[in-house]
Amino acid sequence: MKKILFVTSEAHPLIKTGGLADVCGSLPKALAELSQDIKLIIPNYQALKTTEKIRFLCSLRVDNRNINILETRMPDSDVIVWLVDYPAYYNFPGNPYVDELGEPWLNNAERFALFCRIAVEAAMGRVHQDWKPDVVHCNDWQTGLVPALLSLEHNRPSTVFTIHNMAYQGLFPGRTAAVLNLPGKLWHPAGLEFHEMLSFIKGGLIYADYITTVSPTYALEIQTPEFGYGLEGLLEHRKESLGGIINGIDLEQWNPEDDRYIAQNYTAATIHKKRINKAELQKRFGLPIIDDTPLFGLIGRLVEQKGIDLILESLPEMVTMGLQFVLLGSGDKDFEKQLQKLADLYPDKIAITIGYDESLAHLIEAGADVFLMPSRFEPCGLNQMYSQRYGTIPIVRKTGGLADTVTDTLPETIANDTASGIVFNEASSGALLESIKRALILYSSAGTWKKIQTNAMKKDFSWQHSAELYLALYKNL
Ligand code: ADP
Ligand code: GLC
Question: For the chain, which residues make up each domain, given as ranges?
């Protein structure tokens, strides 16, 4: 049995802004189910929610500050959670990265550096004397200083750093390194320095014993300039210690058979009932309730990464195709405005909800016929997997985890029962529109459509296999 300290800035259902939370909520549970001794450590944000009891564990004095560690557990699991309680940094409204107005916290470097220092204390057995982990598993830039600081400790545990998104690197002005009082030994171009800036992610990429990312295809992509953002050389250099492990999904949270957020539960055998969710979705979005009209959905952060510009370019032609489109998301204000404008122009065809709504996200997965995910890059992506599990056919661009989890519909994949979606290559509205037309042709042939839905629904997206791969990695270190 391995003792694992899992370090993350978000974990569902405690706190979530995106897929990182889904993964950091469900992977620790899957490892616990493999009988591993795992604890998760996370800042005690004001917005963090739990139904479980919280108790005081201990106080620490770190970096001239008094910090409390509180203990709770992940709802419905054996995973113990340590909350880093420092109200002066974390007890404010807003999300882990931005304030209520959507502006990044001005002291993000300080907030996450302190979090990393406390994770190092936990890693060295200084939070709980009887518990020193064998492995510390860090996630994304917010945890990048952990492997760096641990590299200076004697008798330290092994470290794994998982890249969920290379586009976010935690870059701060170079003088921040001094403000944070970081050890001078870490401050050089082969350390935390990146073109005279302080790079949190480099702490993970340079000092972790092993680097993983969330799909095999993305593991290759980030070694190229297009996806590596200047760190491709470093990643290539570390390629012997870099691998892709595809994310799983939480099969209990995302299960059309007993999803409590949807209007009607269903399985592959009762897929005809899916239309009740479609009607409910059309109603919720104020669209005409017509069963025959193919309904396209999209959920996501409204940022470049997700190909929202391609959607905006395609919508004027999409509305001529006899389809409906619903979108749930928030992010770039300009994208939000342009989407709203189109929705106002075509109220019977396009409806959008700007905001974050967990239950509506489930209803879209259940009620839409087609799910759009034309990402420019996608380290893994979870919605295309949720869609398949709900018999909602994803249209995805062939990149990162999308390429690894969706099988394009072709004569041969129809024949061998593997077709589970539609995959296109070029990041252009032309290519997206072509695949939408393909979807409409397939949709008009009820037998073929049902077959693709059934193939998609029976695919195995559980954590089982990937959690075993992480465990094998921990054992190898
Ligand atoms: P990313 O992490 O890049 O945002 P993923 O596909 O990995 O993309 O995961 C996104 C997760 O966040 C999914 O669980 C998705 O349902 C959820 N999500 C994104 N935007 C919203 C929103 N506006 N409302 C509810 N859930 C959302
Ligand atoms: C990131 C990526 C997304 C991935 C998620 C969980 O937010 O953008 O592709 O699914 O992390 O690993």
Answer: 3-248+464-476, 268-460
What's the CA angle centered on 206, arms 201 and 207, to 5 degrees? 100
In this structure, what DSSP letter does residue 186 have? G
Tell whether ligand 2 has an atom less than 6 A from the beta carbon of residue 97.
Answer: no
- Can you list the alpha helix ranges (DSSP code H) found in 208-268? 216-221, 225-228, 232-237
Q: Are residues 177 and 189 in contact, defined by beta-carbon separation less than 8 angstroms?
A: no
Nearest to 295 by CA among 318, 263, 324, 253: 324
Tell me the pLDDT tens digit for each residue of 235-284: 999 999 999 999 999 999 999 999 999 999 999 999 999 999 999 999 99
Q: Which atom of ligand 1 is nearest to the CA of 17?
A: 12
Mean pLDDT of 318-322: 98
268-460 shares the fold of 3-248+464-476: yes
Ligand 1: centre distance to CA 19 (Å): 5
Pocket of ligand 1 (CB under 6 A): 18-20, 22, 299-301, 328-330, 356-358, 361, 380-383
Q: Is 373 in the pocket of ligand 2 (CB under 6 A)?
A: no
Quote the CA–CA distance of 50 and 79 in Å, as a whole number: 13
Instruction: Point out the ligand 2 atom lying closest to the alpha carbon of residue 381.
Output: 10
CATH of 3-248+464-476, one of 3.40.50.2000, 2.60.120.10, 3.30.70.100, 3.30.750.200: 3.40.50.2000
How far does the centroid of ligand 1 lie from the alpha carbon of residue 111, in Å? 24
Closest ligand to residue 301's CA: 1
Contacts of 188 (CB under 8 A, 6+ apart): none
From the CA of 248, which ligand is nearest? 2
451: helix, strand or coil: helix
With the most atoms of ligand 2 within 8 angstroms of its CB, the residue from 139, 141, 164 to mutate is: 164
CA–centroid distance, residue 211 to ligand 2 (Å): 15
Mutating to test ligand 2, I would choose from 140, 165, 299 the residue with most ligand atoms within 8 A of its C-beta, which is 165
Per-residue pLDDT reduced to its tens digit, 43-92: 999 999 999 999 999 999 999 999 999 999 999 898 999 999 999 999 99
Q: Which CATH class is domain 268-460?
A: alpha beta
Q: How far is the first Cα of the chain from the last one, in angstroms, to the nearest whole number? A: 14
- Whole-number Å distance, alpha carbon 308 to ligand 1 midpoint, is 14
Pair of tokens at residue 20: 């990182």
Q: Whose CA is nearest to atom 3 of ligand 2?
A: 381
Sheet bearing 193-194, strands edge to edge: 171-173, 197-199, 193-194
SS3 category, 249: coil
Q: Measure the CA–CA gap between 435 and 322, rounded to whole angstroms.
A: 15
List residues bridging with 423 in a β-sheet.
Answer: 396
Helix (H, G, I), strand (E, B) or coil at 152: coil
